[in-house]
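Researcher: For the annotation table, I need structure tokens for SecDF P1 head subdomain domain-containing protein. Please keep the output clean. Sequence:
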Amino acid sequence: MNSPARLIAAVAILLLACGLAMAEPLTLAIAKAAVVSDQASGQMVLSLKMTADSAKAFADFTRVNIGKVVDLSIDGAVVMSPRLMEPIIGGEIMVGGTFAPGELERIVEKISSGGVSVTVDARAEQPGG
């Protein structure tokens, strides 16, 4: 599928997800992906800057899921699962962690070519927790 079609599909899914009270994973439309140095840790991290529509939907998603654990997945693989402590309204996600050499660069290439899906999903509440 070419990049514009993927973007249209991602936005359609994003709008559907917003209308369904975030019951389904939210697909993020990424405007720019880059490998950058995290100023706090000095580690190389993945910077994902969302499109304006996706940033708004993500901010809404984070507002309704404060206190929950959220899985951020790239191409179906969970890369981080933070607990949301506050809304994320800046339209950018920094993804850190342990990555194989060159893995972040490969992810950036795939996202830039439109060949990767980036999603967030709130975990179901555990009974008694």
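Researcher: And a one-line annotation?
Model: The CA atoms of residues 4 and 83 lie 33 Å apart.
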